[in-house]
Specification:
single chain; mainly alpha; two-stranded antiparallel ribbon; 66% helix
Length: 131
């Protein structure tokens, strides 16, 4: 650990930093998933090659929407990683003072997006899945 702590509502803590780190990772992964439809329309795929390979999907197939089930599997994989980070953040957040908890309010929209994705079976081609 570098010993550098951020301040959350006047509260400094390694646990708060750790929670914020998990939240940042979660939000980044959620942002990646949310960007898929927009980037596909531009012919761009930013999904990690390892995730694509695990789903049996090429970048070209992901952009063209050639294998909807494979794309859903790739999105599920990323969303699952985001969910793990969200759960770690929430667990750490619960033990922080309320002022520090407020600084981690980003958990709420991330959870809402992940819940909606799950409700629509991780189908980012369905416009409602990312609302």
């Amino acid at each position: 650990s570098s010993g550098i702590n951020a301040e959350y509502g006047g509260y400094r803590s390694v646990d708060a930093d750790h929670a914020a780190s998990h939240l940042g990772r979660c939000e980044s992964l959620v942002g990646l998933v949310r960007s898929i439809p927009h980037l596909r329309n531009k012919g761009i795929c930013l999904l990690p090659n390892s995730t694509l390979a695990k789903a049996g999907l090429s970048q070209t197939a992901a952009i063209r929407g050639e294998d909807k089930e494979a794309l859903k599997n790739a999105v599920h994989d990323i969303a699952s990683s985001a969910h793990v980070h969200l759960e770690h953040c929430m667990k750490l957040r619960a033990d922080l003072p309320s002022t520090a908890q407020l600084a981690l309010i980003g958990c709420l929209p991330a959870r809402a997006t992940l819940d909606t994705l799950e409700r629509y079976d991780f189908d980012v081609t369905n416009g409602r899945a990312l609302q």
